[in-house]
Write a sequence for this structure.
């Protein structure tokens, strides 16, 4: 029902406590769903000098030509070239893909050797500390992400700071409507706001160093999104509702056979069903105001996606 929105050029004045000092930032995973938004946000701010790190096998041809691209054969902490590339960088921002999450470990090791000050792991999405959700999904969605944060925690004594972002599912992601839980609320964030939060956080006050940071564009239900879409399109949508528990069981059975086609259903389940961390603002403090994030309109965000 929903399509990916274009990158939004929305930038806001930072909190007066945020540093104005120029920082060198290198982005890993710049060509995925979130990566281009991160590149745009960092590159558009004169307080940052941005560059890209990618493997030789990756297609980085769409990176703007004025941005330096550093290539390595693989991510290896013993690779002198990787350490040299990271030397002089203040911040590493990772948006590496889900199935490659553990490849961040050698990058972290190389960052420590290079004297990098701050690392932002590819944590964006659900609250990966939730054990119930972790049991339903493949390890790279929750368990491996949590392991990376724990690894970063082990490097704090060596001078490497970290910030992990919990954003809920990206708002532009398609979703299955689960019948029993269509009125349950959950947090979600637009890709442009995730990128803005990261940009503002890497020069933000000490309160968000070595912490999980919780942000959201909206706290919504599936039915609220449907209602807004119908209002914007002035049409009644033919919606197919799915029995949540039945769909969860079918998706889990697929997963046990290494059939990953059921993953969107399981992701929707842990998002919408109480107790799986989807509505994380019930138990965590929002950092929206601290990071000077915009007040967003659900109707406006949807309008950009469906026009």
């Amino acid at each position: 029902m929903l399509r990916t929105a274009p990158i939004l050029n929305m930038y806001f004045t930072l909190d007066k406590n945020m540093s104005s000092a120029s920082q060198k930032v290198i982005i890993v995973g710049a060509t995925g769903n979130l990566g281009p938004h991160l590149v745009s946000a960092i590159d558009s701010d004169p307080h940052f000098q941005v560059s890209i790190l990618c493997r030789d096998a990756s297609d980085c041809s769409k990176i703007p030509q004025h941005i330096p691209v550093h290539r390595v054969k693989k991510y290896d902490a013993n690779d002198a070239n990787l350490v040299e590339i990271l030397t002089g960088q203040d911040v590493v921002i990772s948006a590496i893909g889900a199935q490659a999450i553990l490849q961040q470990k050698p990058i972290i090791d190389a960052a420590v050797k290079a004297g990098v000050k701050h690392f932002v792991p590819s944590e964006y999405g659900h609250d990966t500390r939730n054990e119930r959700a972790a049991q339903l999904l493949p390890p790279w969605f929750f368990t491996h992400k949590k392991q990376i944060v724990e690894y970063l925690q082990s490097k704090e004594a060596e001078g490497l700071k970290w910030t992990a972002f919990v954003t809920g599912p990206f708002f532009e992601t398609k979703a299955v409507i689960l019948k029993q839980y269509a009125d349950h609320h959950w947090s979600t964030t637009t890709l442009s706001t995730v990128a803005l939060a990261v940009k503002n956080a890497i020069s933000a006050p000490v309160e968000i160093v070595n912490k999980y940071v919780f942000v959201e564009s909206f706290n919504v239900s599936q039915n609220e999104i449907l209602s807004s879409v119908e209002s914007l399109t002035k049409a009644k949508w033919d919606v197919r509702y799915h029995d949540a528990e039945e769909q969860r069981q079918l998706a889990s059975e697929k997963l046990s056979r290494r059939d990953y086609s059921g993953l969107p259903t399981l992701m929707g389940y842990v998002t919408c069903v109480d107790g799986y961390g989807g509505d994380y603002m019930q138990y965590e403090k929002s950092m929206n105001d601290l990071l000077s994030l915009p007040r967003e309109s659900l109707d406006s965000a949807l309008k950009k996606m469906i026009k």
